[in-house]
Amino acid sequence: MIAGSLRLRLLVAGAVSILVALGVAAFGLSVLFERHAERGMTDELVVLLDRLAAGIDRDADGKLAVADPPDDPRFEKPLSGLYWQVTREPGGLVDRSRSLWDFELTPPQDEPAEGTVHRHRIAGPGGTQLMAVERRIVLPARLGGATVRLVVGRDAADLATARAEFTSELLPFLALVALLLVIASAVQVRVGLAPLAAVQARLAAIRSGRTERLGIAFPDEVRPLAAEVDGLLVQRDRQVETARARAADLAHGLKTPLQVLAGDIDRLKQKGETAIAADLDLVGETMRRHVERELARARRTAVAADAAAPVGAVAQRVVDVVRRTPTGDALDWEVTVDPQLAARIAPDDLAEILGNLLDNAARHARERVAITAAIEDGDVVLRVIDDGPGIPAALVPQALRRGGRIDSGPGTGLGLAIASDIADAWNGTLRLGPTEPGRMTAAVRLPRAAPLQDGR
C-alpha cells in the first residue's frame, strides 16, 4: 500500500523524520540540561568551598579546625550526599563534615596551584561517586602558616536524578510537538499534492469532454508536465482529424459505387430478378452500415466540450423521417419530450442513435412507438418504447454486439452496436429493457447540457 500511494509515502516519511528529529532533540536537550545542571552544581560547591575556607580557625584547645563550617543542614546529616573535608600537607585529616561519618575523602594525587579550584569525580561513602571541587591554600601566620587542602563534594546521583526528572517532563511536551508536526506534515502533503489532484480533475474533464486542455494554471513544478500533456492532446487531435478525414473520404468514395449498385438493384427488380436484387440489396446495406460504423468509431475521440442537442427537436425530426418509410407509416408515433431539454452530444450523433433505434422499433412494433425523455440522477435518459415482441434478456448482449442478429429479418445487425458506440463516445450508455413480450424499451443515458431557450 505504501509503495502505491505517494501521499502515504510522504506521510510515513514525514512522521519517521519527525520522530527521529525529536528523539535526537530529546537526547541533546537532556545532555545540555545535564551539563547546565553540572555547572550549576559546581558553582554551588565552589561557594561552599569559599565558605569552608573562611571558617578555618583554632578551636578551644588551640588545634586547627573548621570553627565556622558552612551552615547547610545536609552537612550534619550522615550520608546525606553533601560533604566537606580539610586535610593538612603534610600531615593528615584536620576536620570533616558529620555527613561523612567515619569516611575519609581521597582526592587525586595532584598538586593544584595555590588558590585555584580543581574539579574531580571521586569515590564517596557507601560506594557512591561524588562531584568534588578542591582548593589548596596556605593559612595565615596566626594559624601556623600551614598548607591545607579543602574538598567539597556532592553525590553525582543527584545529577542523574535531575536529568531523569527533566526528561520525564520533557517527553510529554515532545509528544505534543510530534503530534502537531505530524498534523502540519499532513496539511503540507495535502497542500503539496493539491496540484496533482487538480491535474486529475482536469484530465477527467478532458476525458468527459467538458474541456479540451489542462492549461497553465499550475505551480512551476507541475506546469511542464501539464504542457507535455497538452502537447500530447494536440497531437491526438491532429490524429483524430486525420482519421475522421480518412473516414469521410472512405464514405465519399463508397457513396457513388453504392448509388450505382442501388440503380442496378432497381433495374434487376424491374426485370423480375428479385432474388438477385434482394441479395445485392443486402450486400449494399451491409456495406453502408459498415461505413456508418467506421464513421461512428471515428467520432469516439472527437467529443466537443460545448456540444448540446435539443432532444425533442432531434427526436421529432427523426420520427418524421422514419414515419415516411413503409414500416413506419403504419405505426402510431408519440414524442413526449420537454422542448428545453438538452443533452451533451452533437445533434447529428443523437440523430444517428435515434435513427438506428427507431428503425429497429419500426421493424418490430405492432401498432405504437413512444419516445420519452426525462432527467434522472442528473443525466438525460431517452427511451424508445414499442409494443413489439421484445428481446429475451439472455439475448440482449448479442443484440448489442457488432453483427449480432437475433432474428432473420432484414438488416445487418450493426444498428444497435453503432448506437451503443456513439453513446459511449459521449460518455453515455445504451441499455435494452425491460424486454417482456408486448413491450420493448431501449434507454439511452447521456450527460445533461444547459437548458435550451425556445428549444434551440
Automatic annotation (TrEMBL):
InterPro entries: HAMP_dom, HATPase_C_sf, HATPase_dom, His_kinase_dom, Sig_transdc_His_kin-like_C, TCS_sensor_his_kinase. Residues 249-450 form the Histidine kinase domain. Keywords: ATP-binding, Kinase, Membrane, Nucleotide-binding, Phosphoprotein, Transferase, Transmembrane, Transmembrane helix, Two-component regulatory system. Residues 190-241 form the HAMP domain. The keyword Transferase applies. It catalyses: ATP + protein L-histidine = ADP + protein N-phospho-L-histidine. The chain crosses the membrane at residues 12-33, 170-189. One of its GO terms (cellular component) is plasma membrane. It comes from the Bacteria. Its EC number is 2.7.13.3. Pfam families: HATPase_c. GO terms for molecular function: ATP binding; protein histidine kinase activity. It is an enzyme of class 2 (transferase). GO terms for biological process: phosphorelay signal transduction system. Its main location: membrane. PANTHER family: SENSOR HISTIDINE KINASE TRCS, SENSOR HISTIDINE KINASE YKOH. This is histidine kinase.
